[in-house]
Amino acid sequence: MIRGVRGAITVDSNSENAIIEATSELLRAMIDRNGISEDDVASILFTSTPGLDAAYPAKAARMLGWTRTALLCFQEADVEGGLANCIRALVHWNTDVPLDTICHVFLGEAVALRPDLTEDAS
Question: What was the pLDDT predicted at 121?
């Protein structure tokens, strides 16, 4: 069975360091909160909002040692009023973990995207 684990984080600036640092923080949180192992990951899709073009977010996964996982980056749709400076990730995880126990991770201003999925949601 394959499950999707969602995550998003906002970035302070359009610099390679800021993009890699934020994406690394997001991935580590997604991995830690769900117990994800690279061997169980089919692929990860990343999006970044327009204006974040100093680095590919997937580079952060490579720097964390995930060198065998299929990774792909896209530009997020430029929707009027949408959250700016945001990186999103979708991990395709081979697991039998029940859907309602998956921990999706939204950090920084990205908690506004899915407040119902944050750890503090009631």
Answer: 44
